Amino acid sequence: MSADLRTRFRDPATETPFARFVLIAIAVFFMAVILLLPLLLVFIEAFRRGAVPFFEALGEPDTLSAIKLTLTVAAIAVPLNLVFGVAAAWAIAKFEFRGKSFLTTLIDLPFSISPVISGLVYVLLFGANSFLGPILKSWGIEILFAIPGIVLATVFVTFPFVARELIPLMQEQGTGDEEAALSLGASGWQTFWYVTLPNIKWGLLYGVLLCNARAMGEFGAVSVVSGHIRGLTETMPLHVEVLYNEYNFVAAFAVSTLLALLALVTLALKTILEIRYSAELSGTRKH
After folding, report:
1. What are phi and psi of 84, to 5 degrees?
2. d(Cα 90, Cα 221) in Å, to the nearest integer?
3. Rounded to the nearest 5 degrees, what angle is found at the Cα of 66, between the Cα atoms of 49 and 138?
4. Could you tell me the pTM of the whole model?
């Protein structure tokens, strides 16, 4: 091939050293300014007056209540989304049925709707002027401005995460392993427990990890349905807003560090899961 042809058909992924340097510098600068610098400032502001005010802020009753509520909501929402995500992914990836594409679209719905709108939906469903609200209240069941409403809003905004991680994984794996297990006499439950679940374990853990991070950090939908009752219906993100609006900056940034640490732990676990999954996938291909 002539020099002119080699120049014309040069690999588009091959760049000059200067072009590579510029692209890398832009990416690093953007990440430093948009991601790393704000995260660093959160920790600086939290410890601006020393460690004692920091830990005193975390030990306040309202803060402890917000932390407890956040953990409680996540402990309820994540298992519910785990069950739904596995069931939905299994149905979509393993079976053909009418309405399959519509179900897939519905799973993506929370990604395209503002969390505030999803919170307003529950206000319309369970508010004082709704049909269900007065009936449930007459039975002593409180949805809005109580834990059930916060759980419902959190479940809504987080339920795509597990399903969206598992659907492409299970579609790629196909149904060959399950069919082989069933042909050898395994029951449906045995097939799921000993065949399907081991094949999707890393994707499942990854989806649960993302779901948990979003559940603990959700603000918009929870803000609408919680009522901002201090010490009762304030999660950690809502409590940060209240503390900041009261100019209690040390306490606000102290609670923010917990959410920031959650993000860092999520990132570390995400990296570990990706490495483990890649290593297992490479070992499977070698055999």
Report:
1. -65, -45
2. 28
3. 155
4. 0.82
Give the list of residues 6+ apart from residue 287 with CB closer than 8 angstroms, or none: none
Q: Quote the DSSP letter at residue 185.
A: T
Tokens of 124: 């319309």
User: Rounded CA gap, 207 and 204, in Å?
Assistant: 5
Q: What is the pLDDT of residues 26-65, one digit of tens each?
A: 999 988 888 888 888 888 888 888 889 889 888 999 999 9
From the list 17, 64, 16, 59, the residue with the least C-alpha distance to 236 is: 64
Residues 6+ apart with CB under 8 A from 28: none
Question: Is the distance from CB of 77 to CB of 215 less than 8 angstroms?
Answer: yes
CB 73 within 8 A of CB 151: yes
Query: Measured between alpha carbons, how far is residue 96 from residues 93, 99, 107 in Å?
Result: 8, 9, 17
- How would you label 72-101 residue by residue, b for 16+ Cβ within 10 Å and e otherwise? ebbebbbebbbebbbebbbebbeeeeeeee
